[in-house]
UniProtKB/TrEMBL annotation:
Residues 45-255 form the Aminoglycoside phosphotransferase domain. It comes from Streptomyces caniferus. This is Aminoglycoside phosphotransferase family protein. It holds the Pfam family APH. SUPFAM superfamilies: Protein kinase-like (PK-like) (SSF56112).
Length: 308
């Protein structure tokens, strides 16, 4: 028998707009912050709200077991602030992270009253500076294992056919073997983990800052360059001049590295698996997942993939 999530105060509420709104109200009440008029900015790996009553961003993790990850993100943010690194700041005076409605909630200072994205060249500058930092052992950053993440993503697939799952599993096994043979050339160390233009905003002074610090870990630095490359090369979301500026400012072109296509395929697989977690709850996601699966199966163009 499947229990009703609403029957237990510890059971996570559904990760829908209605479910996370209830979590938001509960968390803000505990933090003594006014949640009235909250604006839902996005509903993906996190539900992200902007509060009009104060310059605050509230993030609610989709994964109900994300407490360790979110605690690390808070510690990373405080360390980056001590290094005067341009990044999102945790809201002072609030215990972080909070648990509400079976979800993990964090509070952040709002960069500004509207979302203004920076440029890919500014992203490159931030990554170059980040990769020069030497993290303290006190952060206890994990070592990044992409295929641990890949295989755990299969467990969260929702509404995906058995045939599609089998195809993706076969692809994952092949890519896992190819990944193990890669010869990385950049130094191993601190990375953001999800470095892309969507995670670089301007603050009120116009400065570019890095946001979404959940994925900080230790890994080959190539991981922080791959998304910008495939956004240009495979999806056409960046233009040539944008990508050339990114390469010039960072100082390395990952597309000239022999392992580029394998790393690109792995990152692409992660994007498809992430979309597959939402097939059962979103018609828009189901349509996009079908489009992406068709491209993987046929080797077709990725130019019609939509950013989420």
């Amino acid at each position: 028998m499947i229990s009703d999530p609403g029957t237990s105060p510890d059971a996570p509420r559904d990760f829908t707009a209605e479910g996370v709104e209830a979590v938001l109200r509960e968390a803000c009440e505990e933090a003594r912050i006014d949640a009235s008029g909250a604006e839902l900015l996005r509903l993906g790996s996190n539900a992200v709200y902007r509060l009009p009553s104060a310059p605050v961003i509230v993030r609610i993790a989709r994964d109900p077991n994300a407490a360790t990850e979110m605690e690390r993100a808070v510690q990373v943010a405080r360390w980056l602030e001590s290094q005067d690194y341009p990044a999102t700041r945790v809201l002072p005076g609030v215990r972080q992270p909070l648990s509400a409605g079976g979800r993990v909630v964090t509070f952040w200072e709002s960069a500004q009253d509207r979302e203004e994205y920076a440029t890919v060249t500014e992203l490159a500058d931030l990554l170059r500076r980040l990769h020069w930092l030497e993290e303290p052992e006190s952060l206890r950053l994990p070592y990044f294992d992409p295929f641990a993440k890949v295989w755990s993503s299969f467990e969260a697939l929702d509404g995906v056919s058995a045939d599609d799952v089998a195809f993706l599993e076969q692809r994952a096994r092949r890519l896992g073997k190819e990944y193990d043979r890669l010869d990385f050339v950049l130094p191993y160390g601190l990375i953001h983990g999800d470095a892309n233009i969507g995670n670089v905003l301007r603050d009120r002074s116009g400065r570019a800052i890095m946001i979404d610090l959940d994925g900080f870990c230790l890994a080959p630095r190539e991981w922080d360059l791959i998304l910008t490359a495939i956004y240009y090369d495979r999806f056409g979301w960046h233009g040539r001049s944008d990508y050339e500026g990114f390469v010039h400012h960072y100082g390395f072109d990952i597309m000239n590295w022999p392992g580029y296509s394998v790393l690109a395929d792995v990152r692409e697989l992660m994007m498809v698996l992430w979309m597959g977690q939402q097939v059962g709850s979103s018609e828009k996601s189901a349509t996009e997942f079908s489009r992406r699966m068709h491209a993987l199966r046929t080797g077709g163009s990725r130019r019609d993939w939509s950013p989420f």
